[in-house]
């Protein structure tokens, strides 16, 4: 078993996370269950922050809450003095309910509604990351109507392709996100923004992709952006106080993945920005980053109970679990790969290769193909690693399967932070025929 954070095997041969016996947690909270190693999230957060401190760079590390958004998670981000990236009214609302300091909230999104923007003004958030001309106009109007200033970053697409899965490329020219740097739209947006009396342009934002293993993409993006900033400094007297380089730092899902330590990405990026700004005679800007996956991804595991077993002789053995694409859509959506162990028998020798099937009515609902495991029986516990990012946050109710609970494990204590959905939760929005219509 690969070593993840506090993951360990206790003397009963059970997997332990944050000092919590996974078999006991499954008995207490039921399965499927998401279990987070809180110490690992804290370690990752501190790792990023300490790298900036070590290099004496003013920074904000904003947790990209789309990776896993909940009140408790946002409170944990606050405890670790992170900032917060939200991308919708719903994430902003969750942050408010978590008591997250508004001035450290950054609001993203390629189609924010007027209502969402008004909500951001009401909350007094730290900054809006502006994605398009419509939004820029709306922010201008709202800020003038209210006489309320707003900080913005302009999200630009630098035309750099990050080496990753096609679905999650966002930094290239042909993208729905941001203002293009090459075709002049970014400059047009800056010129417009600089004329708006209540809008303060803090700087630029770019996010080149997700699950990136190399620093090359970040370095190229930084180089290109700083070149443009030097040009804008000369021609428009604009100086960027902030450079936000987004998230995207890759993590190890399986032995095939070979990411850098999170801090290593940051260190190289900072050094590049330092040399490039110096070369161009610019002030060193604050560096902001927005890690999501690399803060919570490998801190989360999903515990399933094994159920039906279908052996197709000489073809494949299917081992079904009590969850699937409803709690983790990534294998079906991205062909994402995961590792797993039998949490109640971690030390048992590997005896066979099985494929882990979900319980949804869809052939594509397979969680892991060809997983080496001890001989599994119905009623074993399967722990699937690295489901902490984009697992719960992309969970759904396909087949009306209730979403599993989330438990935080730390120092031997298991704390329920999202309760299991009930069947009543599933029908709470349903209106039976025959009721008077009220909208
Ligand atoms: N900042 C921006 C502007 C983003 O669009 C994203 C992710 C992040 C930060 C955080 O990226 P991270 O550090 O988590 O890679 N659902 C996909 C990932 C989509 C990522 C979208 N944007 C998945 O499950 O792999």
Automatic annotation (TrEMBL):
InterPro entries: Ala_racemase/Decarboxylase_C, DAP_deCOOHase_LysA, De-COase2_CS, De-COase2_N, De-COase2_pyr-phos_BS, Orn/DAP/Arg_de-COase, PLP-binding_barrel. GO terms for molecular function: diaminopimelate decarboxylase activity; pyridoxal phosphate binding. Its EC number is 4.1.1.20. Substrate binds at residues 293, 330, 334, 362, 390. It catalyses: meso-2,6-diaminopimelate + H(+) = L-lysine + CO2. Residues 40-296 form the Orn/DAP/Arg decarboxylase 2 N-terminal domain. Pathway: Amino-acid biosynthesis; L-lysine biosynthesis via DAP pathway; L-lysine from DL-2,6-diaminopimelate: step 1/1. The active site is at 361 (proton donor). Gene3D superfamilies: Alanine racemase, Lyase, Ornithine Decarboxylase, Chain A, domain 1. GO terms for biological process: lysine biosynthetic process via diaminopimelate. The keyword Lyase applies. Its cofactor is pyridoxal 5'-phosphate. The keyword Amino-acid biosynthesis applies. The modification N6-(pyridoxal phosphate)lysine is found at residue 66. Pyridoxal 5'-phosphate binds at residues 248, 290-293, 390. Keywords: Amino-acid biosynthesis, Decarboxylase, Lyase, Lysine biosynthesis, Pyridoxal phosphate. Belongs to the Orn/Lys/Arg decarboxylase class-II family. LysA subfamily. Specifically catalyzes the decarboxylation of meso-diaminopimelate (meso-DAP) to L-lysine. Homodimer. This is Diaminopimelate decarboxylase. It comes from Domibacillus iocasae. The gene is lysA.
């Amino acid at each position: 078993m690969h070593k993840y954070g506090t993951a360990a095997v206790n003397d009963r041969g059970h997997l332990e996370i944050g000092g919590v016996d996974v078999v006991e947690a499954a008995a207490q909270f039921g399965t499927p269950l998401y279990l987070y190693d809180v110490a690992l999230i804290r370690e990752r957060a501190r790792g990023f922050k300490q790298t900036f401190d070590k290099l004496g760079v003013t920074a904000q590390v904003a947790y990209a809450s789309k990776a896993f958004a909940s009140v408790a998670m946002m409170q944990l981000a606050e405890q670790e003095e992170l900032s917060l990236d939200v991308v919708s009214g719903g994430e902003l609302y969750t942050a408010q309910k978590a008591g997250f300091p508004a001035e450290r909230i950054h609001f993203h999104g390629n189609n924010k509604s007027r209502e969402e923007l008004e909500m951001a003004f009401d909350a007094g958030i730290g900054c809006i990351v502006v994605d398009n001309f419509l939004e820029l106009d709306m922010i201008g109007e709202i800020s003038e109507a209210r006489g309320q200033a707003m900080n913005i970053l302009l999200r630009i697409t630098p035309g750099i392709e990050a080496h990753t899965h096609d679905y999650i490329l966002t930094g290239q020219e042909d993208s729905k996100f941001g203002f293009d740097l090459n075709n002049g739209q970014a400059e047009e947006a800056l010129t417009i923004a600089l004329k708006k009396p209540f809008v303060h342009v803090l700087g630029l934002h770019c996010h080149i992709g997700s699950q990136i293993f190399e620093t090359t993409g970040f370095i190229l993006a930084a180089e290109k952006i700083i070149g443009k900033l030097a040009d804008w400094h000369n021609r428009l007297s604009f100086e960027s106080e902030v450079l936000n380089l987004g998230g995207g730092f890759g993590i190890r899902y399986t032995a095939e993945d070979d990411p850098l330590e999170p801090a290593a990405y940051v260190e190289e990026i900072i050094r590049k920005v330092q040399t490039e700004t110096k070369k161009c005679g610019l002030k060193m800007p604050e560096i902001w980053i927005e890690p999501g996956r690399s803060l919570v991804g490998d801190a989360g595991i999903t515990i399933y109970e094994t159920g039906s077993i279908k052996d197709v002789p000489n073809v494949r053995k299917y081992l079904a679990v009590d969850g699937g694409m409803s709690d983790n859509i990534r294998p079906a959506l991205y062909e994402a790969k995961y590792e797993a162990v039998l949490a109640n028998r971690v030390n048992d020798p590997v005896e066979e290769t099985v494929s882990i099937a979900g319980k949804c009515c869809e052939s594509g609902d397979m969680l892991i193909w060809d997983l080496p495991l001890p001989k599994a029986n119905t009623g074993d516990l399967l722990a699937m690693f690295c489901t902490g990012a984009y697992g719960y946050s992309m969970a759904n109710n396909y087949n009306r399967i209730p979403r599993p609970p989330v438990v935080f494990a730390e120092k031997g204590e298991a704390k329920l932070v999202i309760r299991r959905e009930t069947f009543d939760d599933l029908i709470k929005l349903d209106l039976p025929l025959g009721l008077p219509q009220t909208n």
